[in-house]
Amino acid sequence: MANEIPVYDAEAIETKWQEEWDKSDTFKARDESDRPKKYVLEMFPYPSGDLHMGHARNYSIGDAMARQARMRGFEVLHPMGFDAFGLPAENAAIKNKTQAGAWTYQNMDTAVATMKRMGFSYDYDRLVRTCDPDYYRWGQWAFLKMWEKGLAYRATSPVNWCPSCNTVLANEQVVDGKCWRCGEVPEKRELSQWYLRITDYAQELLDDLDKLTGWPENVKAQQRNWIGRSEGAEIDFALAAEDGVTPTDRLITVFTTRADTLYGVSFFLLPPESPLAAELVAGTEYEEAFNELKKSVEQISSVDRQGSDREKHGVFTGRYVINPLTGAPAPIWVADYILLDYGTGAVMGVPSGDQRDFDFARKYDLPIPPIIAQKDDPLYEELKDEQGLRVTNVDWDHAMDAEGYLIQSGPFTGMKGGKHSEAVDAIIAHLSERGIGRSKVQFRLRDWLISRQRYWGNPIPMIHCDCCGDVPVPYEDLPVRLPDDLDLGAGETLAEYAPFYETTCPKCGKPAKRITDTMDTFTCSSWYYLRYCDPHNDQAPFSKELVDRWMPVDNYIGGIEHAILHLLYSRFWTKVMRDLGMLDFDEPFTNLLCQGMVKDKNGDTMSKSKGNVVPPSSVIGPYGADTMRLAILFIAPSEKDFNWDEEVVAGANRFIKRAWRTVWSLAETADANVSLDVAKLDAAGKELYRRMHEMGIKCTTDFDRAQFNTAISAVMELVNDASAYLNKVRIDKRDAALTFVVARAIVAMLSPICPHWAEELYHEALGFQTSVYDEPWPEFDEESAKASTIQIAVQVLGKVRARIDVAADAPKDELEAVAREAVTKFIEGKTVRKVIVVPGRLVNIVAK
RNA sequence: GCCCGAGUGGCGGAAUUGGCAGACGCGGAGGUCUCAAAAACCUUUGUCGAAAGACGUGCGAGUUCGAGUCUCGCCUCGGGCACCA
Question: What is the pTM of this model?
Fold first, then answer.
């Protein structure tokens, strides 16, 4: 073969193969293939400009997986698309006096060009853009289906309004009390908004996390936190008449996880926003103080209101409730630490069972009856027989005790109390029997608020008619198209744009008004992975057959910032589609990999404002895409953050060039037509052959567990060994079959990561006519990876004292004998109590 | 406060099940080639020590012949939730 090794010209090679792949069908996913399927998916980008390093990392990981899976015999679906609706397009349109669509499409073109320049193996025939009417039409379809099932609804309630984005936000989009997009602190506004009933699925969303064994623990934990299930009880308290002691028919229900503390109720709490509280104080001497409190709460932001160390404020309402077990009256207070929208919006105050109630009671001098004590506490003896005396305020230090045994609690005294305790069960059972309480599971999760008062999104397909109310747009009228001639620059909004909203009622035919809210962009990204399975379907969002053929996604790769938002919504959407009979599985993503962030060399996040952004093009230019991909995957494990380091890129480039030369040198003698006879190899050849299998196995298993940094290091070792072989063995003594097999193994193993480099060597150095991705991944076996002699450690009392070379299959007694000999000076004059022989590992002699 | 992670050389990081800690790479040192430089290649590189050796995976205990890995108790850092009753 060639005498002179060609220079590694990354740019020329990469251009050549990118053009080749563009023309070929190598990466088209074939629906009809009978190979086993593998669906590799990276979270699609928002097209806000060109791709950044985070994208490059995300897609390098996914592409390595997809390419390797293809070689392992899978039919691979590896699609890409764009999450194309969203506020940045609108802002850019306003700023640049263009259309949001034009801006978005241009960015998508730029991003696709960069993806191709990076050599990502996407099936571009399946490209999905969520702003295409062909796509968003089916989002509207799904909304209507949910409307029919009662899963989509409209309600008026206090919502988070972002004054900077001029729209409402979902609970999940308020991160650290701030807007997830712009960081502004949202205001509470009372608005009529559209919701999806994700709470119907709260229990299943929680339970099915246990099925997701391929998900990182922290993501599952975050979702569990977010869903926030707590088991407890609802208990009905009767409102007392104005005399404060006579129960009325009016019941106020509380939710509590600590029904066992019911005897310790010394006051009752309502939130400042409570309409009931307003009613109770209306026209009384307490009204003024109440209004003041309410006003002060409205004035502080949600950020300031949260935090358990904030001082609590409360006012008395002048009214009482009656404890359903003791019949004792408890004063109703309004307190700013009570939330309107959790539980029933009313809370029983138990200062001896709850830190917050305790703090509140101390501040306002409310009674603190001890109801729980340890059995060795004198208080326990003193109060265990108290039935109705209601001893209070014995001793501040004793007063708060959440775990222990009940005292002065009627028939329940002496029972073990605490969360999920026997006393909880007993009291709930007792209340249930009498019909004044019941066990209840409460979730923190709220329904998903999906309406947005923004233009660049998917219109909610509903019409409001003064006679008929909210009427769905008929399916045959879908999609409700977004107008593209709105003058955003002049501040025009969808709500003011008559050609869009003026319509007639589909039910009665009278003039009616279209809903001008659009859907949260997260609705678009909740099902795009389903659309990829059947992207051109114009009869349905996707066919069941194709979705069941490709789904679930086997490997999903993306940023941890979506741990709750996108990943929770998508799981919900999948379950809804399942219940609509659209598909046959419960969870969309089998294995999830959350890649770490790419930071600058000082460990700061890259951002335009800081001016520390390293664009992918700055690396591709001087080094090429293959070097960049290699560097990104080698620098750290995929899930860890890393700091960008030019030295690592230079190192990766050095390796790629070295491996290039090594493969070409091996190719000088390589002959594909000679079959390998291991027995005939010389010692150096045998060792290289063995190492190829050893490193091949390591590399393969590392690919399986997505450990690309160590997979690469295995190839590096093999390249080092091959180059040692080349140095040691004269060219005329090299084995033609061996050099071929090793060269092919190196190229194949690196091909998922450095695809252009690999294709070039595969064709030009090794003489293949087919793509490396049409060839199977090389086979490696344990037997060939075994060495005949190995070095093992000899320990005396656990300390390594010698190393011995022994036959790999040497029997235990022989190992022991050789080992004893090697460490004589350490065991002389001592008694050998025990000898542990671990074949292949070590010998440990216990001598004292 | 509750729930998850993670702490290993100068640096990024290795070490499927308890079995030779530091693979691979970066950086450093020395060398070969060169008029010189770059590139490339070779040697070396945990700490202390001339060496023998000792010490070494955040800290402290424990289990074990043997612990980075298991148990208990801490510390630090990162992330999530949080006045959620």
Answer: 0.93
